[in-house]
Amino acid sequence: MMGGRIVALSGGVGGAKLVLGLAHAMPPERLTVIVNTGDDFEHLGLAISPDLDTLLYTLSGQANPETGWGRRDEGWRFMEAMAELGGETWFRLGDHDLATHVERTRRLAAGATLTEVTAVFAARLGVKVGVLPMSDQKLRTEVQTPAGPLPFQLYFVRERAVPPVTGFRFVGRETARANPMALQALEQAGLTAILIGPSNPFISIDPILAVPGLRQAIRNAGVPVVAVSPIVAGRALKGPTAKMMTELGIETSALGVARHYRGLVDGFVLDERDAALALSIEAEGMAVHVSGTVMATLDDRVRLGRAVLEFAARLAVDRAPSRSGG
Amino acid sequence: MMGGRIVALSGGVGGAKLVLGLAHAMPPERLTVIVNTGDDFEHLGLAISPDLDTLLYTLSGQANPETGWGRRDEGWRFMEAMAELGGETWFRLGDHDLATHVERTRRLAAGATLTEVTAVFAARLGVKVGVLPMSDQKLRTEVQTPAGPLPFQLYFVRERAVPPVTGFRFVGRETARANPMALQALEQAGLTAILIGPSNPFISIDPILAVPGLRQAIRNAGVPVVAVSPIVAGRALKGPTAKMMTELGIETSALGVARHYRGLVDGFVLDERDAALALSIEAEGMAVHVSGTVMATLDDRVRLGRAVLEFAARLAVDRAPSRSGG
User: Fold this and answer.
1) What is the tens place of the pLDDT at every residue in A170-202?
2) What is the three-class DSSP state of A129?
3) Whole-model pTM over 0.80
4) Cβ neighbours of B127 in A, within 8 Å
5) What CATH number has the domain bearing residue B29?
């Protein structure tokens, strides 16, 4: 049951925590993560892929536990010198972290794909989980606000997610193609579940689903799709998810998230504090599993990873007869 | 007499020391340095201008006194992380220093000239001396060796200047144009002397002289041209100058340097230890000034700067009558 192959969709911090837990709960080389690159941007001439880096740093034990981004034991001499030279400093790039961006930019300029660069970095950092950008082309999240659209990082970092959000646009969705390795992972023999991490549905998961072909490939995989709620007790575990839901007029609860995933998700993992929502979510046509979803420690992550895998496995058993009978 | 305008030609360390001395011996805003960019290269996707940076760092008090390159109080996290990612690490880029390269690359990509970028950095760092790249186009020194040609930094840093040198080629000299501001400085009213720093004649000064129009503009300026010997007692003060002279079959002495500058230089500044060479150098048609040329301290630099300025002023007085009489 735990011997199958798993695909997870992930944004940054929250998703990375679940993926780390999964990597301890199953053979990591059987796990493939399709990562949001809608937050990617070019800054100071460097190609920056925040969610890919969060995954690589988290899985290699190098993530900064305090900030939720960047690397641990980081230095800031580069930023100091940039300030001195009058360069842009609103996006913080640590001295260690910078090597990732410089080397990625160099490799991309030399003709490598983002998938290839990420694979090289994963190998160097000893990451055994397959970490895949959703696309090798640009598909960039643009945040709609009353004052006009903002590229994601300007909204999120420079403006500290303060402007109210009226919607999102995924710029490049007409021309971006799904990462062929991501499609392959979704079609591979032995796939037993697709998991959606406790990431922001709008800015972390929706960009992945906006890549042409990926949503369909997920539906076509014929395995349970299980999402973990990023909202617990009406609040986001991290970042502006709850704020966005309020601004978008969506119920700010795990139920709101579940409804957002309607038609895609078979099973929904709910925190114990939200157990009262289980019936309403089941009424949306999803199975519900109630668990501790707050991942403060590595143990929490492994426990949640294991719980999600077991829940998905139960769903697979449940749906098997109906399928052969259908 | 000391109120005139001065132009200096400079490579990295040795030239920068003299320029720093000059900047203390005269009003710095009347001093313009035309800097070698033949050592410039693109590395890790970054535009690197070692001699320009050495000038800016030296004049702003940020140079690393131990290494002769890079910045003081430097950190190496970026390099550590590059090694971890399998990137190239033979060219050491400090965490502070890196900001200069990233910001220069960004500004160049946005359409600024190297002259403009250098002026912005100089202003930010409080440098009052005019620091000018010799050209805004590429003119790159290529070192000829028995094993074939090597781009300068590969020869100098990666190969540690070990391969024997058979000659030099300045790639791009057909298309590079002189920095218009450098030409302007050489033609400006009030110019009283042109100084050639104690830099390597072959790889620091010759590239400047190879820029179309610069050598002629120096000759046309009608002011004394004074060179300071980079060779003292048969040895280079810094770097591979003496080694190169031996390999090129040039006498490894201040006399060899003076002969190299024949036809360009009116006055030659010789170290006390080489006073015995004065007559031979005068026989080459140059006036000679004997001075302490080793610049260990700031005082040494200021003293040498003052001596060079006074020597040039004397030469101007000496030549004035012969000119009006000729």
Assistant:
1) 999 999 999 999 999 999 999 999 999 999 999
2) coil
3) yes
4) none
5) 3.40.50.10680
